[in-house]
Amino acid sequence: MQPAAVITGAASGIGRELARCAARDGAIVVLVDRSQDGLTEVATELGKTGTQAHTVLLDLVGKNAGDRLECALAERGLVCDILVNSAGFGVFGSATQADRQQQLELLDVNIRALTELTLRFVPGMVARKHGRILNVGSITGHVPGPHMAAYHASKAYVRSFTAALAVELKGTGVSATCLAPGIVVSPFFLRTGFNKTRLARLMPRSTAREVATDGWRALQKGQAAVTPGLWNRLIIAACRLAPHALLLRLIATLQQPN
Which structural domains are found in the chain, ordered by start? Predict the structure, then answer.
């Protein structure tokens, strides 16, 4: 069985850029996404560089997604040596007015699937005494977010879960890293509608390539957490120092749907 880098959300944005990082390091790459066109495009691109790239068309909302992914790896003679949980999405708007099913599916992808895949593959990594996990969070995980309540809460979970896991894995040869970017110019950013808020206009922006490069470097070093960009780190520090009630009122105002 050959070790591989398994990357969810690999068809676009940060996931696509992380797949490129893995390919540059010579890894066998398993691209996981629900977009067939996007998967084909990325696999073709990586294949031209000599990378062995496999595609798995998979919607992580499905409860049997983990089983299907594990079977896909076994059929190809691969084991998950690097797991990148990059798949995720946001729902913008008041929790009471936004689509309920979409918010529940957000939790399925951002929390349940991320946790399920981590718990599925980390025991094998520990047994082999080698492995890396990269969970893509967000600076939104540091504060509740009116008008994106479920999304902020999901990223707080990713942050907490990964931090605890990183401590548990010390000395095993396996590491867990939380990548927490700010605003990233990507299809995800444009889809949510958040890009039209005053907060989005005020926040600094990064490219998916910049964020992925920092995240991949942190993964290789076994860091527990990384937040790309000095301004984003300063924003997190300010959120920690600001009175909680004042901070929530400010976010509610600036993140108000137009």
Answer: 2-254 (3.40.50.720)
pLDDT (tens digit, 9 = 90+) per residue, 168-225?
999 999 999 999 999 988 776 666 666 777 877 877 788 999 999 999 999 999 999 9
Instruction: Please work out, in degrees rounded to the nearest 5, the angle formed at the alpha carbon of residue 72 by the alpha carbons of 4 and 117.
Output: 70
Looking at residue 169, its amino acid is L
Helical packing angle, 208-221 and 13-24, nearest 10°: 50
**Which candidate, 67, 17, 56, 65, places its Cα nearest to that of 33?**
56
Cα–Cα distances in angstroms (integers) from residue 87 to residues 2, 31, 233, 242, 251, in the given order = 24, 11, 23, 31, 25
Residues 6 or more apart from 202 whose CB is under 8 A from it? 254
Structure letter (DSSP) for residue 257 = -
In whole angstroms, how far apart are CA 83 and each of 3, 15, 79, 97, 186?
Answer: 11, 11, 10, 35, 21
> Catalytic residue positions?
151
CA 107 – CA 150 distance, rounded (Å): 7
Q: How does pLDDT run across 131-168, given as a tens digit for each residue?
A: 999 999 999 999 999 999 999 999 999 999 999 999 99
Other CB atoms closer than 10 Å to residue 167's CB: what's the count? 9
DSSP code of 242?
A: S
pLDDT of residue 193: 66
